[in-house]
Design a protein that fits this description.
With 477 residues, the chain is α+β, with helices and mostly antiparallel strands. It is built from 18 helices and twelve strands. It has two domains: 29 residues; 444 residues, Cytochrome p450, CATH 1.10.630.10. The strands form four sheets. Strands 1-2-8-5-3 form a five-stranded mixed sheet. It has a three-stranded antiparallel sheet with strand order 4-12-9. α5 packs parallel to α11 and α13 runs parallel beside α18. Keywords: Heme, Iron, Membrane, Metal-binding, Monooxygenase, Oxidoreductase, Transmembrane, Transmembrane helix. One of its GO terms (biological process) is sterol metabolic process. It is a single-pass membrane protein.
C-alpha cells in the first residue's frame, strides 16, 4: 500500500506542479510591461527624488514612451499598475467601488486612519461621502462666505499690514488652517488650537514615505503626531456631541456637528467616531495643502504675468467699488469672479497641486489587454492629460480662455479635483477660499518677487523656492 501511494504521489505531483507553473506563467505573461524593481522599495525613491527635483512629469512621460499607457512598477511597498490617458482616467473615476476602491499609499493610510474616504469602498464609501456632502455643497457653503471673509481680513491685519516683505506659502498655510479650525471644528484661538497646529505640521511631513517605522524618520514622527491629532479630534467630537444632544447646538455650525447630526430612522448616529475622526483629518490635510498652494502660485503667476494681473485686478476692483466700507463679500460677489476663476482653473491645469493618486483593485481586472491582479495598486498622474497637446492646444501656454466654454474640454481630461462621481467633495470649499483670498490680495497690495529663482519642487505638493518671498506695496483702501 505504501509503495502504491508513493508511486501515485510521484505521478500526480509533477502534473499538479506543471499545471501550477503553467498557470502562474500565463498569469505573469498577462501582466503589464515594466519592472517591480527592488522588493518593497521598487521605484518609490526614484519617484520621490523626481518630485523633489520637479522632473516627475518627465519621468512618467518617459515610462509611457517606453512601455505604453499601461505599465507595472512598485510604489510605497505595493505592486502597482500605472495608467495613462482619458480612457484610464474615466476607468479610475467611474468604475464601481466594488471593483476598484479609493486608496492612498500605506503611509497615508496609517497616518490618516483606515476609515477615511480614500480607503472606504462600496456602501461604506457612499454612506460617508453622502454624510460629508451636505456640509460641503454650495447651498450650505454660501452661509460661510462671510466667515471666510472675516478670517482673511483678520489674517491680513495680523501678518501682512505694515510689513515690507512676507513669505507667502507659510502664511497661506496659516490662513487655511485657521479657516479649517473655525469652519470644520468650530475651534477658535487658544492652547488647543496651537497644539493642533504644531502636531499637524509634524504629521504631514511623512505623508508620502516608504512605510518603514524606524526611529528618527519622518514616517515615525508623523505616526506619533498623528496619534496625538486623532486624540485631540476625538475630544472635540465628544464636546460637539454634548453640545448637540444636551445644549441644542445647530447642526450647521461646523463639520463635526454636521456629521454627528446624520441619523437613521431610530435617531442613531450612522457615522462612527473613527469615521468622523479619520475623515475630519483627511479634509484637514486636503483643505490645508491644496488651497494654500493654489493661492501661493496665483500670487507667483500674477507677479510674472502683467496681462493676467491687470484683468484680475479690474474684475476685483469692479466688485470692490460696489461694496460699502467694511461690507463682507457675498456668494453673489464670488459668482461675478468669472475671469479670476478661469485663471485659477488654468493654473490648476499647468501646476495641479496633487501630482497623482492611487486606487486598489478589489478583484482581478482586465484593462487594455493586461491583467491588473487583485490587491494591486492603480496609480495615475494628473498632469499627463493636462499637458497633452492632442487635448489642450499649446499646453505650455498659459491661456485662461480655455475655460470660457467648459463643454469644449473632453471628459476626464481635466482632473485637478478628480472626475465624475469621484470629484473631490471639497471643491467648492476650496473655490471660496481662493477667490476671497485673491480679492483682498489684489485690491489691497501690489507685490514683487524677492527671489530670482522661479523654480519649484514637489514635496509632495508644489513648493516654490524659499516659500515665495515677496516685497509688499500697500494700496490706499
Amino acid at each position: 500500500m505504501t509503495i502504491y501511494f508513493t508511486t501515485l504521489f510521484f505521478i500526480i505531483f509533477p502534473i499538479i506542479l506543471f499545471i501550477f507553473i503553467r498557470r502562474k506563467s500565463a498569469r505573469s505573461s498577462r501582466l503589464p510591461p515594466g519592472s517591480l524593481g527592488i522588493p518593497f522599495i521598487g521605484q518609490s525613491l526614484t519617484l520621490l527624488s523626481k518630485m523633489r527635483s520637479n522632473t516627475a512629469d518627465k519621468w512618467v512621460q518617459e515610462r509611457v514612451q517606453k512601455y505604453g499607457p499601461v505599465s507595472k512598477l512598485s510604489l510605497f511597498g505595493s505592486p502597482t499598475v500605472f495608467l495613462h490617458g482619458p480612457a484610464a482616467n474615466k476607468f479610475i473615476f467611474s468604475t464601481s467601488t466594488s471593483i476598484i476602491s479609493n486608496q492612498q499609499t500605506a503611509s497615508i493610510k496609517m497616518i490618516l486612519g483606515e476609515c477615511n474616504l480614500f480607503e472606504l469602498s462600496s456602501e461604506d464609501h457612499k454612506r460617508v461621502r453622502s454624510a460629508l456632502v451636505p456640509f460641503l455643497k454650495p447651498e450650505s457653503l454660501k452661509r460661510y462666505t462671510g466667515k471666510m471673509d472675516t478670517e482673511f481680513r483678520n489674517h491680513l491685519k495680523m501678518y501682512w499690514e505694515g510689513k515690507d516683505q512676507v513669505t507667502v506659502l507659510p502664511l497661506m498655510k496659516t490662513l487655511t488652517f485657521n479657516i479649517i479650525c473655525s469652519l470644520l471644528f468650530g475651534l477658535e484661538s487658544g492652547p488647543k488650537k496651537e497644539k493642533l497646529i504644531r502636531l499637524f505640521q509634524e504629521m504631514i511631513e511623512g505623508m508620502w514615505s516608504i512605510p518603514i517605522n524606524l526611529p528618527f524618520t519622518n514616517y515615525n514622527r508623523s505616526l506619533r503626531a498623528s496619534a496625538e491629532v486623532k486624540q485631540l479630534v476625538k475630544e472635540l467630537v465628544c464636546e460637539k456631541r454634548i453640545d448637540l444632544n444636551l445644549k441644542g447646538a445647530s447642526s450647521n455650525q461646523d463639520l463635526i456637528t454636521s456629521l454627528l447630526s446624520v441619523r437613521d430612522e431610530n435617531n442613531k448616529e450612522i457615522i462612527s467616531e473613527n469615521e468622523i475622526v479619520h475623515n475630519v483629518m483627511l479634509i484637514m490635510v486636503a483643505g490645508h495643502d491644496t488651497s494654500s498652494v493654489v493661492i501661493t502660485f496665483l500670487m507667483r503667476l500674477l507677479a510674472n504675468n502683467t496681462e493676467v494681473y491687470k484683468s484680475v485686478l479690474q474684475e476685483q476692483e469692479n466688485i470692490a467699488k460696489d461694496k460699502s466700507s467694511g461690507e463682507l463679500l457675498t456668494w453673489d460677489d464670488l459668482v461675478k469672479m468669472k475671469y479670476t476663476w478661469r485663471v485659477t482653473q488654468e493654473l490648476l491645469r499647468v501646476i495641479p497641486p496633487v501630482f497623482g493618486g492611487f486606487r486598489k483593485a478589489l478583484k482581478d481586472i482586465e484593462y487594455g489587454g493586461y491583467l491588473i491582479p487583485k490587491g494591486w495598486q492603480i496609480f495615475w498622474a494628473t498632469n499627463m492629460t493636462h499637458m497633452d497637446s492632442t487635448i489642450f492646444e499649446e499646453p505650455s501656454k498659459f491661456e485662461p480662455a480655455r475655460f470660457e466654454n467648459q463643454a469644449s474640454i473632453p471628459p476626464y481630461c481635466y482632473i485637478p479635483f478628480g472626475g465624475g462621481a469621484r470629484v473631490c467633495p471639497g471643491y467648492e470649499f476650496a473655490r471660496i477660499e481662493i477667490l476671497v483670498a485673491i480679492h483682498y490680495l489684489v485690491t489691497r497690495f501690489t507685490w514683487e518677487l524677492c527671489c530670482s529663482d522661479d523654480s519649484f519642487k514637489r514635496d509632495p505638493m508644489p513648493v516654490p523656492t524659499q516659500g515665495l518671498p515677496v516685497k509688499l506695496i500697500p494700496k490706499k483702501v
